Amino acid sequence: DCWCIVVSFGLDAAATDALGKFQLTPDNFQQMGQLIARVGLPVLAIQEGGYSEGKALGEVAAAFVTGLRS
């Protein structure tokens, strides 16, 4: 039986990341959080990646968590 979802949460997929080649926006991360939340199981998100300075990565992380909570 599955009792939780483990997510490798790579912030380097954000468009604002200095090293990543993806172009995902905070809205995209929020949508991913919403899709994962629909499964209805507890979520363990392990943050990895993300190499930008400033507030950009925090905004992306907050959008993901907002999606998980909706």
β content, as a range? 15-25%
Structural class: alpha+beta
Radius of gyration: 12 Å
Largest sheet: 2 strands, parallel
Which term fits the overall shape? elongated
Total strand count, please? 2
Q: Which spans of ≥5 residues are poorly predicted at pLDDT below 50?
A: none
Q: Largest sheet, order of strands side by side?
A: 1-2
**Helix and strand sequence:** EHEH
Tally the helices. Answer: 2
Q: In which range does the helix fraction lie?
A: 25-40%
Overall mean pLDDT stands at 92
Kindly report how far apart the N and C termini lie: 25 Å
What does this protein structure show overall?
This protein has 70 residues and is of the alpha+beta class. 37% of the residues lie in helices and 17% in strands. It has helices spanning 26-37, 56-69, and strands spanning 5-10, 43-48. A two-stranded parallel sheet has the order 1-2. Helix 1 links the parallel strand 1 and strand 2. Helix 1 packs parallel to helix 2. The N and C termini lie far apart (25 Å).
Keywords:
single chain, 70 residues, two-stranded parallel sheet, alpha+beta
Set down the secondary structure blueprint.
Layout: E1 5-10, H1 26-37, E2 43-48, H2 56-69
Parallel strand pairs: 1-2
Helix pairs in contact: 1-2
Task: Quickly describe the structure.
This protein has 70 residues and is of the alpha+beta class. The chain contains 2 helices and 2 strands, in the order E-H-E-H.
